[in-house]
Design a protein that fits this description.
Blueprint lengths: L18 H8 L1 H18 L1 H4 L36 H37 L1 H16 L2 H12 L3 H27 L3 H8 L4 H9 L4 H24 L11 H8 L8 H27 L8
Helix pairs in contact: 1-12, 2-4, 2-12, 4-5, 4-7, 4-10, 5-7, 6-7, 7-10, 8-9, 10-11, 10-12, 11-12
């Protein structure tokens, strides 16, 4: 009896690269942003080994005979500050502060915004009215003014600054999540689960939240940029991270009186803030395009 001819199975199957990764890899601007993010993160992680000196160490030869900061070059690649401290070392350790505040603040903001948006969008009723009116009130205040007021009341410190930024930024996440949940709640698979007797918790965790992952990831990336900028602004105004902890905004604040005579003291930390914010924005925009639920082909 003849056996049916069947093709021999492959020795191994190579899983296909997910579509969103292929989309992201085709976006060169997003790849540039990702590269910049990786550089900043590595610089912050390895700051103790990359920094030439202790960021708080003052050098007797770090100032000119007139008491002015040294320009870039020689022993101090980026020059020194007004107290004779190495500017490069302070910038590297300042990257740690910016990333810690950005990650912690944005993480808290995303969690709060997701909880508020999901609760208001799915449970509806009076809860939706209360929560969304609260977000409207929060958005009515300028973010920087509200952050300054909260930081002044709670007291400036690294973790207080992160909490303040989170309390300011969660509203944008909540509004986006709320709108998406309103749409998802009317979808057939959610109504079918409800008709079959699925509990509210099961519908939220098994059907609603998985559909929000891409939105959460995008806000989790883009929000770091605004958190870094807001932390720098608070530190510049004196209500953020306090000396002697190095902060990019704090370095600019300390050096603003030397702007004409020692412009590198403002230019280098300002460029670090700009570059970090830009890279996170480019990376977040590319991630948002790659995770777009619309089918744009492969």
């Amino acid at each position: 009896m003849e056996k049916d001819h069947q093709p021999a199975p492959a020795a191994f199957d190579i899983p296909q690269t997910p579509r969103w990764i292929r989309r992201f890899r085709r976006n060169r601007i997003a790849l540039v942003g990702l590269g910049g993010v990786v550089i900043v993160v590595l610089a912050a992680l390895f700051a103790p080994w990359l920094a030439p000196y202790d960021p708080s160490q003052q050098f007797f030869d770090g100032l000119t005979l007139e008491g002015m900061p040294l320009p870039p070059g020689g022993k101090f690649p980026l020059g020194t500050d007004l107290l004779g401290r190495d500017l490069l070392s302070r910038l590297l350790f300042g990257a740690r502060v910016s990333l810690i505040v950005g990650l912690v603040a944005n993480g808290i903001a995303v969690v709060i915004g997701t909880v508020v948006g999901v609760a208001a969008g799915y449970l509806r009723g009076w809860l939706e009215i209360v929560l969304m009116r609260l977000t409207d009130i929060m958005t009515a205040f300028p973010a920087l003014v509200l952050a300054i007021a909260l930081a002044a009341v709670l007291g400036p410190s690294l973790w207080i600054v992160a909490l303040v930024i989170a309390l300011v930024n969660w509203v944008w996440v909540a509004r986006a999540i709320h709108a998406q949940v309103l749409s998802l709640a009317r979808r057939d698979f959610v109504e079918a689960a409800h008709a079959l007797g699925a509990s509210t918790g099961r519908i939220l965790f098994a059907h609603i939240l998985p559909q929000l992952i891409s939105t959460i990831l995008v806000f989790g990336t883009l929000g770091i940029s605004s958190a870094v900028l807001l932390e720098a602004a608070l530190s510049f105004l004196g209500v953020g991270v306090q000396p002697p902890t190095p902060s990019w905004g704090g370095i600019i604040n300390e050096s603003q009186t030397y702007f004409l005579n020692a412009p590198w003291l403002v230019a280098f930390p300002g460029f670090a803030i700009l570059l970090t914010s830009l890279c996170f924005n480019l990376f977040g925009e590319g991630l948002r395009d790659a995770l777009d639920v619309g089918d744009r082909g492969v």
